[in-house]
Amino acid sequence: MTNPKPLKIAIASGKGGTGKTTLSTNLAAFIAEQDEVVLVDLDVEEPNSGLFFNGILTHEEDIFKMIPQWDESKCTLCGICPKVCNYHAVIQLGPTILVFPELCHSCYACSELCPVDALPMIPKKTGTLRDFQIEKLHFVESHLDIGEEQAVPLISKTKKYVARKYSHVSITIFDSPPGTSCLVMEATKDADFVILVTEPTPFGLHDLSLAVETMRALKKPFGVVVNRYGIGNDEVIHYCREENISILSKIPNKRKIAELYSSGKLMYRDFPEVKHSLSDILDYCITAVRGGIA
Amino acid sequence: MKIAFTSEGTSWDSLIDPRFGRTENIVLFDEESKELTAVDNSAVKNDAHGAGTATAQKIFELKPDVLITGNGPGENAAKALKHIKMRIFVDANDLTVQQAYNNYKSGNLREV
Ligand code: SF4
Ligand code: SF4
To answer: Ligand 2 centre and the CA of B73: distance in Å?
Structure first.
């Protein structure tokens, strides 16, 4: 099957524990029954999609980010670099310039604005990327090194790897980090469609409305999947209706589903209704992005 | 001796701010001139990143001989503070600046 345009779907949620990873893994496995698919775990601080698969490791590489390295012999102590760093990753303590690699966003500002080239950029390891294959499913995950505080460069490098290696694959699913931080923006910014996963509870609604604001700020097409439908109340449903947000699917709350999830198993095969939901979700995304030409 | 405190306010009665990087103010007491001054740190507090290193930079510029704070600096800030010749006392949580100063004088604060 050749598709007109590869489809990039990001799955996000306002907070952790809403079943975002369950949806990502099940959707990927469901697609892989017929087509080649890539699932990318961008929750690099706590990747866990991998728990669901026993794949063959096909590739592993260290990921580097660029950081400035102070060249004391060239530095004139002009004081520019600490002023231009928005992240306080380089500071000046009298005659010493200190660089904090874990805080650095690799923006190059200090390096480029240093008048005497005393801050050349050098690579520093920030995490490890692993690529697994389970039949038609490719699973890519990156792990941020301990102590490293900046996940954005690793997320961005992971996406580049996927774009390079899997440009021929028609569907890629990005499991985004939870929250509404700059990490989510980085993870979702070049997706064609974003699925926001939520639960029908007051907390779920609160986090969903924040996530909706983020998506609107990014001008992303998005829709909502309500997980554990049946618990809590109907406020999430009302909210979506008022805000004109499409609900792609409501996945029923069943104890058995929760059990299978916590045991790290794919559950859609055992639940026709879940399989049905996945199929609806996929159709919706394809139609929304390709305008029904798929 | 110049003593710096991380503080929620700007006076002797203000509480110690337990946070180092995100402290509201840095209060300075000059034992010679008996002068108490305060430096606003709220701009740093609202930064998403690198509050610890930014505050360390500020402390450096104020050149105190002693720093009194609560929870103690985080990893990056601690690395920066190593470059500053200054004694650091922690665990002054829930004390006012005055009480913290008294405790420091009587040797009742933990030094790191
Ligand atoms: S590269 Fe950018 S983020 Fe990194 S230290 Fe320089 S100015 Fe700061
Ligand atoms: S900008 Fe360059 S010369 Fe100026 S203080 Fe920083 S490293 Fe030194």
So the answer is: 26
